[in-house]
Amino acid sequence: YPSEFLMQKITEDNQIPVHLRVSVSLQYVAGLKGRALVEFFHSNIAEVENEELRHLMWSSVLFYKTPNVEVMACVLLSTKAIYFLLDDSFIHADEHQSDFWDKENSDCENSSFHLSCCFVLKLNDLQSVNVGLFDQYFRITGHSADHIVTCLTRDSYNTHTFIQQLMAVLSLLARTPSPEPVDKDFYSEFGSKNTGKMENYELIHSSRVKFIYPNEEEIGDLAFLVAEKMDGLTNLPSLNILLYVLAFQVNHYEGSAQNTSSLQPKTLILTSSDLFLFDEDYISYPLPEFAKEPPKRDKYQLADGRRIRDLDRVLMGYQTYPQALTFVFDDVQNQDLMQNLTLDHFGE
């Protein structure tokens, strides 16, 4: 261990997305190759000696306790646990985390010393994995609020690969088998199905971890929500969601010492008539079993919406990935353009 193929694969995956900034400590990790990367894992991260590193992925992550702080992480999957290697700036990003992180080592002020904190989720504590719409993200749920993490891969391939690797590793776990199902009588079986609500598609792994995929109703609910935001401008049956993608909105700041731009996470939804940007809650839904009350905000909050007929042009960047798109809309104040043409421009 490990095989040459595995080392080559992990080396290829050890690349930070170019559009996201990370600390010096994570840049150091991203610079490791092959055997050096495996040795770094065993000497600095692995908790037991006979652990095997199986998969590596760079992804933005969200924690249930801090739903507003998206942070870059190196996600390492081994035969024992999932490790989220974070830079130390995350510890200071939110004042509510004093009880979440053990900060005894965070007072190192030596500039040549770069601290990373590592969040560990043991595979034995894993209960369910919720896959987001169109595999743009997935949420890993453990036994408490401290053990819920969403990985915003923004990439269906990365999501699919990680889920496949996770299933393979879970198959190695020796867990006690589930108890045999109790035979139900006809009436209770019939009554339980008469709820009127279709459950999400669930796959229960042999390790008893649930893998939950969205069903078609989620798209229907989303279409209904989008139609509501359009103030009844269109009829619902003809509304089709053509595209759902997790993206970033670029806010450019001029006039500072150096022109900088910040990336605001948004959910982009394209219908046959409109383009929408939503602020989506990726971590709180569906509600975990221990949640006592619903989240403070809705799953989807409209940030911006424009009609496709007002779209003037689309500017495309030349870089390969990620692609930058600029949508330029005509600034028409009135919804109905024909009214503007009847204005008397020769009157007083």
Automatic annotation (TrEMBL):
It comes from the Eukaryota. One of its GO terms (biological process) is lysosome localization. Keywords: Cytoplasm. Residues 241-347 form the Nischarin C-terminal PH domain. The keyword Cytoplasm applies. One of its GO terms (molecular function) is kinesin binding. This is NISCH protein. Residues 114-178 form the PLEKHM2 PH domain. It is found in: Cytoplasm. Pfam families: PH_NISCH_C, PH_PLEKHM2. It comes from Hippolais icterina. GO terms for cellular component: endosome membrane.
